[in-house]
Amino acid sequence: MSDSLIHPVILCGGSGTRLWPRSRAIKPKPFLPLVGDSTLFEQSVSRCAPGAGFAAPLVVTGAAHLAHVEAQLDPGSGARVIVEPSARNTAAAIALAALRLDQDDVMLVCPSDHHIADVAAFQSAAHAAATLARQDWLVSFGIEAKSPETGFGYLQRGAAIGALGYQVARFVEKPDLARAQAFLADGGYAWNGGIFAFRVGAFLAELEQHRPAIAAGARAAVAAGHADGQRFHPGADAFARIDSESVDYAVMENTARAAMVPADMGWSDIGNWDALLAARPRDEMGNSVTGPAELVGCRGVLVESDGRQVSAIGLEDVVIVVDGNDVLVTTRAGAQLVGKLQGAVNQ
Amino acid sequence: MSDSLIHPVILCGGSGTRLWPRSRAIKPKPFLPLVGDSTLFEQSVSRCAPGAGFAAPLVVTGAAHLAHVEAQLDPGSGARVIVEPSARNTAAAIALAALRLDQDDVMLVCPSDHHIADVAAFQSAAHAAATLARQDWLVSFGIEAKSPETGFGYLQRGAAIGALGYQVARFVEKPDLARAQAFLADGGYAWNGGIFAFRVGAFLAELEQHRPAIAAGARAAVAAGHADGQRFHPGADAFARIDSESVDYAVMENTARAAMVPADMGWSDIGNWDALLAARPRDEMGNSVTGPAELVGCRGVLVESDGRQVSAIGLEDVVIVVDGNDVLVTTRAGAQLVGKLQGAVNQ
User: Fold this and answer.
1) Backbone torsion region of residue B297, taken as left when φ is above 0, otherwise alpha when ψ lies between -120 and 50, otherwise beta
2) Strands B165-172 vs B258-263: parallel, antiparallel or unpaired
């Protein structure tokens, strides 16, 4: 039975390379308290609060991270978990979730490794998106672009749909810097943050139309699956045969019903240590410290230590991370290369 | 009985703050392999090799460092050790050593926490200094000034004494930068590296004249002392009553017989991490790495790790030291402040 609530679908995963060595394959970004005392996953769940019109969440995660998910879910939340037998990207993950909901439920697909500073703005955008989704629009959050980022896809705004949103004129893959600057200057482009609202039936119909094999594979995996308390385990063989494709490629870029709602909510994908520093509260020198540290004459420095004493002198725009047997020191500009370090690759 | 050999007097001590956290009070700089595979102390001893005209060394150290000294001395070297019951600066330490040698022995006082790249030049200067010392000059090594250092005292060259050296016209305490630059431009100034050659009797006579209390105190401490194999323990009470004063203040700045021999021998006092990097072999990017590390796009970076993996990206002129539970990251310019860090002060 459908209801008027919004059904959060929280996607959990990640390889843990870009915030290495704090984030690791065995405990990636969503499960770490990177901004504030709660983890990004916990914040993703708590943003979709029952009192704000959200149903209990449906979490999609891999077996490798199930323990983290269950440890960080409130047992009384009524949350359900879909345990992916393998990683098959977002189209398959969202299809699984859709098949575990009712046709007329509105699902809100949320990555769990982003930070959103303004929860009220998020909830407001979610309700706007849900309203459009009930009209069978496939809705992306169009996150207000604050800088010419080359690491995100962009949505070009089309015709208005009432007061709540716009049609998407075009999806743009990660641009080069010149194009990103042009998008920012134009003002008609927003970041694609991977947050979507769909009516379940509308999503499945579009998936069926544009990627029938993924839809059939997901149905087969659910048919071969079994429930275990709040957990649902799709059939592993059927799931493994599904193409690995993002929901953007599989559905959003093909549907004629793509819409967007503007969202200006202090969003960050915390895509590297530099982005994390930007998302964190900082002192008057622009420094942010977690763990024991003494900073002398430092500016724009992020220290993240698992307990060892960090002493820093005279540094500007540098990130220092101490975790287990690894010490990372990088310029903020160099932070984008962290995922390519041997330690991050070979973990 | 005196002989024609040079008697090395190796002074060992230090608080271990300026190269913290690698150097610590319990194991300060002389006892660490900072440049090459042997320690600075081992190098200080081996520079004064029997084959090059040196007698077995006389080491002066505190009880706290005796174990390091004895562990790093070759048992067959015939070295003797004077164990200071307390720290009373160099005038008292050298007086103790003088009193354990013969009147006509030439002693060569050597700090053990410096690095000297050109051992042959050191030995050559030592023999020149010894020759002048036998003429009852009190001889300092005048180390060729390579830069306008403000952390060293300077010797102003006076009249030549034959071909071997010069009288010292003036001792100059640590200058400000403008004066240091003027000294460098003048060319008549050398660094005072704390290396001295004295005929024992001449030194004791000058000490007696200018600091009779220190001379008397040292005699009393030796009289109250006892030998224990190769070790000599001065009387603790008598030694504790001696004024703590450097040999520069107590003797060198007062004597009319101050001389210097020029020494251009790749000398460094390794007074901080920046100086250590300068003394070390570096790769083509100017980096020097000890321990497991991956450097990406770094230039002028020193990594010193006790075993933890250090990953560094995009850094220029930065020092990274990992030791035990401490991680130090400083600009090379900031390295002079390391000794004032809480960790260094409170160790």
Assistant:
1) left
2) antiparallel
Q: CA A183, CA B110: separation in Å to the nearest integer?
A: 68
Please check whether residue B292 touches A, CB under 8 A. Answer: no
- Domain containing A284 equals 273-345
Segment A305-338, tens digit of pLDDT: 999 999 999 999 999 999 999 999 999 999 999 9
Interval A226-275: pLDDT, tens = 999 999 999 999 999 999 999 999 999 999 999 999 999 999 999 999 99
- Nearest-by-CA chain A residue for B311: A328
Verify whether the Cβ–Cβ distance B313 to A297 is below 8 Å: no
Asked if residue B79 lies in contact with residue B73, where contact means CB atoms within 8 angstroms, the answer is yes
Nearest CB to B327; choose among A296, A322, A340 = A322
Phi, psi for A273 (deg, rounded to 5)? -65, -30
Question: Is B298 an interface residue toward A (CB < 8 Å)?
Answer: no
Q: Least CA distance to A295: which residue of chain B? A: B341
B115 found inside a domain = yes
What is the pairing mode between strands A80-84 and A258-263? unpaired
Tokens of A230: 């709040």
Residue closest to A321 by CA, chosen among A340, A335, A337? A335
How many distinct structural domains can be found in chain A?
2
Residues B92 and B78: their CA atoms lie apart, in Å, by 23
Cα(A121)–Cα(A8) distance, rounded to whole angstroms? 16
pTM here is 0.90
Q: Which residues of B touch A294 (CB under 8 A)?
A: 341-343
Same domain, B213 and B99: yes
What is the ipTM for the molecules in this complex? 0.88
pLDDT digits (tens, 9 = 90+) for B157-177: 999 999 999 999 999 999 999
The three-class DSSP label of residue A140 is: strand
Return the ∠ at Cα A283 (arms to A279 and A287), rounded to 5°: 70
Residues B158 and B288 placed together within one structural domain of the fold: no
Q: Are residues B239 and B278 in the same domain?
A: no
Contacts of B8 (CB under 8 A, 6+ apart): B44, B45, B48, B54, B55, B57, B58, B107, B108, B110
Which of A294, A313, A337 has the CB atom closest to B296's CB atom?
A: A337
Q: For residue A317, what is the nearest residue in chain B, using CA coordinates?
A: B315
Any domain includes A1:
no
What is chain B's alpha carbon radius of gyration, rounded to the nearest angstrom? 20
Q: Which two tokens stand for residue A179?
A: 């194009």
User: Which of A218, A246, A268 is the endpoint of a domain?
Assistant: A268
Q: How many CB pairs under 8 A join A and B?
A: 117
